[in-house]
Amino acid sequence: MEPKTIKKIGVLTSGGDSPGMNAAIRAAVRAGFYYNLEMYGIYRGYEGMIQNDIKKLDSKNITHVLERGGTFLKSARSLEFKTPEGRKKAYDNLMSHGIDALVVIGGDGSLTGAHLFFKEYGIPSIGLPGTIDNDLSGTDSTIGFDTACNTAIEAIDKIRDTATSHDRLFFVEVMGRDAGFIAINAGIGSAAAAILIPEKKMPIDHLVDKLKIRSKAKKSSNIVIVAEGGKSGGAGEIAGKVKKYLPTYDIKVTILGHLQRGGAPSSFDRLLASKLGVAAVEGLLQGKYDVMAGLINNKVVYTPIKKAIVDDKTVDEEDFRIAKILST
Ligand code: F6P
């Protein structure tokens, strides 16, 4: 597309927050200043766009944010933005500030919103993959995924200590919505006895057989990682089913939950977010609209948002094979 003249860019974070969002905002804003643009913070995602919670940013706003978890622009899941009336209000507010382009940082729901908004109002926009779930195509990793995996592994290591002391079987549930990326990474990285992910079926009797084999091999602790979106249920449900087969086992359940979304971003996420924040602004200036900037083999790639959200990125078969070998 022929580049439009862009002078004012609005930045927002939307959906579930992820570590590294602040670093991405900072990089986009810094890049904007580098190219002599005015940069605006849209607070609370699309909700703030609808309620006109929009402020011009200066360099003070982005001082000491790179290293902080969460998002200083705050985030929300806006129901009103899903309606044409909500999007019209949002558009009118952007126009009242003269904002002529957008950087949207979020997961698939947030990028879907950006795509729809672009189709309806033609405002140049670029999405950045900000989610711990890693479920977007067009990037090897999403911003926050690496930190979330590190957090999960650190927590599971601690569970391992107590599991070993008491010879217990733990079921640990990790986030990821419908995807098993956190589960497979955290499972391999913490020597899990088994990993249950939505992408692969594991019948309960197979899991039970595996645990029995490990018991014969005198393994001192067993940790089963369960992805929250699994078709056979969450960690509590699976634990209940296994208990019926193995009534003598001392079984405990831990749901890691939102702690996986917090904390300072890892060096990987800081770098990824910084590269993509700059890529977002440069992409807009080059006329790349309605795309998501991602990093593939360490190179910036712009993928149409429609493709990034629809293409099913699935857990690598090879990772699953390795997990299987390592848990026997
Ligand atoms: O998409 C990120 C995520 O943390 C998912 O892993 C999880 O299913 C969901 O958000 C939780 O959403 P909320 O914070 O709205 O409960």
From TrEMBL:
<feature type="binding site" description="in other chain">
    <location>
        <begin position="175"/>
        <end position="177"/>
    </location>
    <ligand>
        <name>substrate</name>
    </ligand>
</feature>
<keyword id="KW-0324">Glycolysis</keyword>
<dbReference type="GO" id="GO:0042802">
    <property type="term" value="F:identical protein binding"/>
</dbReference>
<dbReference type="InterPro" id="IPR015912">
    <property type="entry name" value="Phosphofructokinase_CS"/>
</dbReference>
<dbReference type="GO" id="GO:0005945">
    <property type="term" value="C:6-phosphofructokinase complex"/>
</dbReference>
<feature type="binding site" description="in other chain">
    <location>
        <begin position="131"/>
        <end position="133"/>
    </location>
    <ligand>
        <name>substrate</name>
    </ligand>
</feature>
<dbReference type="GO" id="GO:0048029">
    <property type="term" value="F:monosaccharide binding"/>
</dbReference>
<feature type="binding site">
    <location>
        <position position="108"/>
    </location>
    <ligand>
        <name>Mg(2+)</name>
    </ligand>
</feature>
<dbReference type="InterPro" id="IPR000023">
    <property type="entry name" value="Phosphofructokinase_dom"/>
</dbReference>
<comment type="pathway">
    <text>Carbohydrate degradation; glycolysis; D-glyceraldehyde 3-phosphate and glycerone phosphate from D-glucose: step 3/4.</text>
</comment>
<feature type="active site" description="Proton acceptor">
    <location>
        <position position="133"/>
    </location>
</feature>
<feature type="binding site">
    <location>
        <position position="168"/>
    </location>
    <ligand>
        <name>substrate</name>
    </ligand>
</feature>
<comment type="subunit">
    <text>Homotetramer.</text>
</comment>
<keyword id="KW-0418">Kinase</keyword>
<feature type="binding site">
    <location>
        <begin position="77"/>
        <end position="78"/>
    </location>
    <ligand>
        <name>ATP</name>
    </ligand>
</feature>
<keyword id="KW-0479">Metal-binding</keyword>
<keyword id="KW-0547">Nucleotide-binding</keyword>
<feature type="binding site">
    <location>
        <begin position="26"/>
        <end position="30"/>
    </location>
    <ligand>
        <name>ADP</name>
    </ligand>
</feature>
<dbReference type="GO" id="GO:0005524">
    <property type="term" value="F:ATP binding"/>
</dbReference>
<dbReference type="GO" id="GO:0003872">
    <property type="term" value="F:6-phosphofructokinase activity"/>
</dbReference>
<keyword id="KW-0963">Cytoplasm</keyword>
<dbReference type="GO" id="GO:0030388">
    <property type="term" value="P:fructose 1,6-bisphosphate metabolic process"/>
</dbReference>
<keyword id="KW-0808">Transferase</keyword>
<comment type="similarity">
    <text>Belongs to the phosphofructokinase type A (PFKA) family. ATP-dependent PFK group I subfamily. Prokaryotic clade 'B1' sub-subfamily.</text>
</comment>
<feature type="binding site">
    <location>
        <position position="16"/>
    </location>
    <ligand>
        <name>ATP</name>
    </ligand>
</feature>
<feature type="binding site">
    <location>
        <position position="252"/>
    </location>
    <ligand>
        <name>substrate</name>
    </ligand>
</feature>
<dbReference type="InterPro" id="IPR035966">
    <property type="entry name" value="PKF_sf"/>
</dbReference>
<dbReference type="InterPro" id="IPR012828">
    <property type="entry name" value="PFKA_ATP_prok"/>
</dbReference>
<dbReference type="GO" id="GO:0006002">
    <property type="term" value="P:fructose 6-phosphate metabolic process"/>
</dbReference>
<dbReference type="GO" id="GO:0046872">
    <property type="term" value="F:metal ion binding"/>
</dbReference>
<keyword id="KW-0067">ATP-binding</keyword>
<feature type="binding site" description="in other chain">
    <location>
        <begin position="258"/>
        <end position="261"/>
    </location>
    <ligand>
        <name>substrate</name>
    </ligand>
</feature>
<protein>
    <recommendedName>
        <fullName>ATP-dependent 6-phosphofructokinase</fullName>
        <ecNumber>2.7.1.11</ecNumber>
    </recommendedName>
</protein>
<keyword id="KW-0460">Magnesium</keyword>
<dbReference type="GO" id="GO:0016208">
    <property type="term" value="F:AMP binding"/>
</dbReference>
<dbReference type="GO" id="GO:0070095">
    <property type="term" value="F:fructose-6-phosphate binding"/>
</dbReference>
<feature type="domain" description="Phosphofructokinase">
    <location>
        <begin position="8"/>
        <end position="283"/>
    </location>
</feature>
<dbReference type="GO" id="GO:0061621">
    <property type="term" value="P:canonical glycolysis"/>
</dbReference>
<dbReference type="InterPro" id="IPR012003">
    <property type="entry name" value="ATP_PFK_prok-type"/>
</dbReference>
<comment type="function">
    <text>Catalyzes the phosphorylation of D-fructose 6-phosphate to fructose 1,6-bisphosphate by ATP, the first committing step of glycolysis.</text>
</comment>
<feature type="binding site">
    <location>
        <begin position="107"/>
        <end position="110"/>
    </location>
    <ligand>
        <name>ATP</name>
    </ligand>
</feature>
<feature type="binding site" description="in other chain">
    <location>
        <begin position="219"/>
        <end position="221"/>
    </location>
    <ligand>
        <name>ADP</name>
    </ligand>
</feature>
